Structure formats: C-alpha cells, structure tokens
Amino acid sequence: MIIIDAGHGGNDPGAVANGVKEKDWTMEVALHQYEFLKNLGIPCAITRTTDIDLSSEKRSALVKGSGASICLSNHYNAGGGSGAEVIHSIYAKSDLAGSIAEGLKKAGMGLRRVFSREGADRKDYYYMHRLTGDVETVIIEYGFLDSSSDVKKLKARSYRLQLAEEAVLAAVRYLKGALPQSLYYVQAGAYKEKASADQLCQKLKKNGYDAFVKKV
C-alpha cells in the first residue's frame, strides 16, 4: 500500500509566493495521485482530502497506522533556490528518493538535490521521517514557488499533475518491481462539458472497459 500526504493545510498555508499557497497545490497533487493509484489498482490511502489542519502528531499517526509500505509527502519549496528536492530518512537508502528524482528530472523539472537530514539529537530532522515508524516516507519538494524558472513551469496545472504521476510511478515500480516503464492511455473522446464525458465513461464501463474521466 502507498499512502499519499498533502503537506500543510488549514491554518498552515506552507510556502506562499507568486500568488500561490503551497497547501492548495499539495492538495491538488495528492488527490490526483490518490485517484491515479486507484485507477492502477494499487491499494492506497491519503492523509487529507480537504483543507483541514493536521498536527504533526495526527499526520504522522495517520501514516504510521495506515499499513502502508511507502508514504509520498507532497510539498513545494520557497526561500531561494530552484529545482526539485527529494528527501529520505537517514535510516533509508536513497533508492526510492533517487528514482522519484529521476522521474521529475525526466519530466523537465530541474533537480536540486536528493538528501537526508540529521537533527541535533542524531535522529531524523523531519518529523515525517522521525514519527512514521516503518513506513518509508519520502518528502517531495516539486520546485520553488519563489523561483521564476520553476513557477513558469509549475503554473501549468497539467505539468504539476505530470510531475505527480512521475512520483507515483516511481513509487509503484519500487514497491512492485513489475510495472512497465511506460503506460499507454487510450482516449475515447474529449468534451467541453463534463456531463458528456461522464455519459461516455458510463457507456464504456457498461461494455467492460476500465474507463475514467480525466480533466486536462
């Protein structure tokens, strides 16, 4: 199982720059990843589906008690810099984090670094690593909201979702070791009105096809 975490939320907006609140984009990413995993038939869970407050204790408890093997904690950065960062526990190998980083890089996002961080107490600095038990948690910073080059790319919703999918696919390959390097989607139609798309989707399902509506 993979659990998806939407960083921040509620009274905690996270990073704020260029008219964007981090909590909004992490929610968008997390919901997309959750639906993406369900459509792949991968058991999954999510820490929040709405804009609510989650304390560090509550968030980490949800992850720790989920029964998941992997947690993807979604974030966006700020404070100077550019490119994606992927952070793993000091007790974990960098294989998963490195695979996610390569996926983001392949999608065209610059890669700043893959790293772990030790606190003054010689334990993991980040509570999502320190308090989530045996769940291999990876913190993904998709780019810097105050970087003009990053935001130029990230302003496109389709690109944000592309990066989200690359992270998920890397996690699934790591977990399963059997997912092909590429997935091919068959588009049966495209509509301006969601009702028309839903109608075709239901028709396809009645005929035995695993169909779903995806907004682009």
Question: Can you describe this structure in just a few lines?
Answer:
Helices cover 39% and strands 18% of the residues. The protein is α/β, with parallel strands linked by helices.
What structural keywords apply?
18% strand, six-stranded mixed sheet, two-stranded antiparallel sheet, 216 residues, 7 helices, alpha/beta
Largest sheet properties = 6 strands, mixed
Average pLDDT, all residues: 91
Structure class: alpha/beta
- Work out the oligomeric state of the chains in this entry: single chain
Q: If strands are numbered along the chain, what order do they take across the biggest sheet?
A: 4-1-5-8-6-7
Distance between the termini: 27 Å
Tell me roughly what share of residues is in helical segments: 25-40%
> How large, in whole angstroms, is the Cα Rg?
18 Å
Q: How large is the share of residues in beta strands?
A: 15-25%
- Total beta strand runs: 8
Unreliable residue stretches: none
Order of helices and strands: EEEHEHEEHEHEHHH
Shape: globular
Q: What count of helical segments does DSSP give? A: 7
Could you characterize what this model shows?
- By secondary structure, the chain is α/β, with parallel strands linked by helices.
- 39% of the residues lie in helices and 18% in strands.
- It is built from 7 helices and 8 strands, in the order βββαβαββαβαβααα.
- The protein has helices at 22-40, 56-64, 95-106, 127-130, 148-154, 157-176, 194-206; strands at residues 2-6, 16-17, 20-21, 44-46, 70-77, 84-87, 111-115, 136-144.
- The strands form 2 sheets. Strands 4-1-5-8-6-7 form a 6-stranded mixed β-sheet, covered by helices on one side.
- Helix 1 crosses helix 6 (157-176) and helix 3 runs antiparallel to helix 6 (157-176).
- The longest helix has 20 residues, at 157-176.
- The two termini are 27 Å apart.
